[in-house]
Amino acid sequence: MAGDPDLRMTESLATACEAGGADVLELGIPFSDPIADGPEIQEAGQRALRAGTRPRDVLELAARIRQKTQIPLVLMTYMNPVLAMGLPTFAERAASAGVDGVIVPDLSLEGSSEIRDALEARGVDVIQLVAPSTPPARAAAIADASRGFLYVVARYGTTGIRSNLPEDLRDRITALHRVSSLPLGVGFGVTTGAHVRAVASAGADGVVIGSSIVRRAAESRDPENVRKFVAELAAGLAVERTTSPVLRDNSR
Q: Which residues does the annotation mark as catalytic?
């Protein structure tokens, strides 16, 4: 979460995540009503807002991170901050900052064409989410509108730390591979190294871990501790690691 506890520390934590083995870095833009997020990320967002973090600050942070590394950068935001800045301005600033992709969880497929047109015209991928309840035909349409990767929501409800994964996750991943050639990144409740191994063995191409890293960062503002924690999670991958993906190359 960008700005938790402040932007300078966020930059150090981001670097630590990459050093720990993260292939893609997601920066959250804090928002007052994050309907898709559980308590860990909600609380981090509130701390960031109290610290005065604005969307333009997050874009400037992304630009500084881009100067240090070529790791793919993804912004997690809601539509309200985008519209408040102005869609053309947001798209231009995201592209100029070196952002590779944007996730907007409160945006439906039917309402996504305008932001997709604005961002994709500037080379920024819009990453769509597919829910556990999504029928196959709609999942195919969502995948067709997604770029970079398809974000597979593992469970009903919000993000957050969970003790187990849904039993039908393997079947859902298999079904989604049938309707899309995009890489599948599974998130929402993926918490531990054991979860990472289970998701990878179920056929996912990527594992999205947010809440447990956000909580670890809140418990210890020491980037080295965060690096070690990310390394423990990355060690759970039961597949050969290759070079870091570039979202734009996967999207066409």
A: 26, 37
